[in-house]
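Data deposition worksheet. Section B asks for the primary sequence of the deposited chain exactly as it was used as input, without tags or linkers unless they were present during the calculation. Section C holds the resulting structure in token form. Section D is free text for depositor observations; keep each observation to a single sentence. Incomplete worksheets are returned to the depositor.
Section A, Depositor: J.P.
Section B:
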Amino acid sequence: MGKGGSVSDEEWARFLREAGAGPEGAPREPSARARMVARRLREEPGRPEGWRTYESDQRRRGKGRYAAGLVVVAAVLVGVVAVAPERVAGWFGSGQQEAPLAAESERPEQPPADMAAQAPTLQEPFRGSPAARWGEGADGIHVPAARATGWMSQAQVAQALQKSRDFLAASSLDPGVLRGEYPGRAIALVNPDQQDVQSYLAAAFSKPSKETDPLLLFSRFEKEKVRLVGDVVKTRGRMTFSEGERGAVKVSTDVTYVYPVVRADGGRDEVARTIVRREIVMSWDDPVKVRIKPGTFSLASYKVDATNGGCDEYTGGHFIPAFGAEGESAGSGPAVDPYDRSTTMDERMREAENAGCGTATRS
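Section C:
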């Protein structure tokens, strides 16, 4: 590996295995994870009605279900995380920069290698975490090469991919949105004729509830309680695309976001991390066949899995991280590695189906 080069997850894991992965018995960063299925709502997948047969559907076919044809599998795994006070030297020693990972162009075969426990600091908020080697912001989201698909030319697909990534950035990375502001740029990219989705979005920011929780699609914190450390959110994920119904271009995204935060009062400098994984599927429909505003997408499905955002309770539409002693008790649910991207979101949802507050293996 040349200086400044990047390596894959698999190469990195093999390197650590061969090197012993650090001193045996090195303490783990203790953490607790609360796991809650806020919703598991399914209906037969479909697409918006054809242009000549479109009818506004205001019916709600089951609790929390908003869009005809929208598959909602929303499991909010909200957790509490305690960070170990001890500072254990990392494998590379103090001050040595670790090589960044290559982009995630496909699902990894295994979770990131174990690391020696190191508490995050204001200067190094991702220390002791696999996210230390992840990309920053939208740069950590792999975008595939475009090709003509469905009703779109290669150039149009490239534009759809870019706008899809713009939505992810505007909904989960925008500094104002993270402080709790209205995500206008993100919502402007959602098909205004997808009426039930628009109803959900309107309710989420006027009368949020368990059924209309903005955290299903957006990352938000209460600025009066916590603030981000610095201006960097670490990300790792990828986008794929294929031809959908009626020649639509279906863009599937699977991204994990890591948010380092401190208490807003500034009284203590303890850093906590909230880790959120979202899988969002967007359908870029042909306006000749589907009633849709050009330049917008129809929301096909979304799933969310979060660690250290709250515990088995509705959080008022904001992530509520825990600090120190608040997160020292583990729950009864299964142990989960929030950095493990080798499992699918469907597998994660099945594991969470009947789980209560659980335990994260690391923060």
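Section D:
The radius of gyration is 21 Å.
The mean pLDDT is 77.
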